[in-house]
């Protein structure tokens, strides 16, 4: 796309008969900030590549039943026949074959590929659910605190400081089994959906404060602007002020915070499952797989690479996309 | 300055108080039966009842909490079943490991300190140095390499990096022993060779974040008017960057560093698990698994103390770096 005047003239000469007026209209088409950002995003090659990778991951996660049917192996099936006497998979790179694309787990002999596909779905579901919850709670409380100020602002600020002082990993660690104990007995099996629910709740509980703080800062900056004052002077109610006047002006940082929160939750879930308090072995998850693979670093090093590289690619794609989104939404930013 | 310090310490104490109350409630009041986890499998009702009595679980919550706090400040008598007299920083008695919790902490805290302090020095030097350099040489190959490094590092997971380091340096090249902890004062060589992989893994991931942060801060500062004024006055580049710009750019980095170091001192669960080291983090995880409430409570409290203290230190550093803070 060149904007040199010479080419413009040449084009105008070629296209001039008949549609001169239409061309002028096109040239002065107004674009909203959203359209501008979308255009910038489309031009950004990093954004396109990482976006495509993300779409691929999401599609895989959505198509789990289909993939399982086509692949023909379930996540809990064991292939002991393909392990040697010590429980190590036969063949190269941890037993990679046409039937088992990423090989088999040492010991139990479960298929790594199908477990990773399932793990991807769980991971993305938890991360998206937690990010949506965080955004809803954080935006609501942040807007209220920023706009109303007063005691509400003080309380929310103090809670934010408090959650920052709590060591997240250890609290989550301690909270998971305590909550499970509250609802299930010591020796009862805790169902997977309950673990997933508790994980999402814990992430939301600890995550909303950063969004709230971000939104609060933005709202405070907007609060004294003329258009807000004008709306207030014309007698707008609280709901109108928040949702019609203030929020539409802060959606860009919220969107960026959301897109960067998702990879954070993906890694937190993997970390919690890694240390053994998130999901249990019943539910396939990246963190659990990597934890199990630590025992086989010497004998089956391939085992750690498949989940390790996948989670890296997933988080990397999300981070790159989030950065690109920030650049597209904020023309002034220079990372 | 004194007033600033006093105010800051008071608010830190308030936060710690809130954390202690919250975690106390969370661990002792929330579970259906806090004792069931503290009793091994061959547990009869009498023993359960005795444990309840000894722990004072029949008392009202407030007096339980008061007793716990009194133990930390002055020490208290726990009764013969719990090792009798428990001296000043008394954190209770663990039925799982059959020792005073403060003894456990005294054993595992040095491990975490030995992991975190050298790693933090490494990552701060490496990360901030790299970030500043790449900001000063914006657009050069060094800058591009630093951006690539920080983007990759920010998406890598410690357990994966740790596993790769173990596979390469321990199991294939056999350059290093399997990670383990030896006291620095017993054998400094063994201490460092046993922990160096943990330092490298932690420092690699953290310096990626710090390089990115300090680069962005430095770039922002360099575009400000006071830097231009300093240059226009004819000051040497070194004075402008070293004295004027660095001071302004470093403040946000100091904040994050305080949070990170404070958080890490409370336990580096993932590092410890990956390398099989038994520090604060590992102890907390094992305590959670075993339902060992006094130990969980102690690890959470100590971790919170580190975070809060780190924040106080950060604020003091702020006051040193930026004189406006002292007056505000």
Q: CATH homologous superfamily of the largest domain in chain A?
A: MetI-like
Report mean pLDDT of chain A, rounded to a whole number.
78
Instruction: Please count the beta strands of chain A (DSSP E, at least 2 residues each).
Output: 0
Average pLDDT score of chain B: 81
Task: Return residue spans of chain A where pLDDT drops below 50 for at least 5 consecutive residues.
Answer: 1-24
Category from helices, strands and their pairing of chain A: mainly alpha
Element-level helix/strand string of chain B: HHHEEEEHHHHHHHHHH
Give the domain tally of chain A. Answer: 2
**Spatial shape of chain A:** globular
Offer a quick outline of the entry.
The complex is a heterodimer of chains A (335) and B (328). Chain A has 335 residues and is mainly alpha-helical. Chain A has helices spanning 5-27, 33-43, 45-62, 64-71, 112-148, 150-165, 168-183, 192-223, 226-233, 238-246, 251-274, 286-293, 302-329.
Description of the structure:
The complex is a heterodimer of chains A (335) and B (328). Chain A has 13 helices and no strands. Chain B has 328 residues and is an all-alpha fold. In chain B, 74% of the residues lie in helices and 2% in strands. Chain B is built from 13 helices and four strands. In chain B, helix 4 runs antiparallel to helix 5. The radius of gyration of chain B is 24 Å and the shape is globular. Classes of the chains: A mainly alpha (335), B mainly alpha (328). At the A-B interface, helix 6, helix 7, helix 11, helix 12 and helix 13 of A face helix 1, helix 5, helix 6, helix 7 and helix 10 of B.
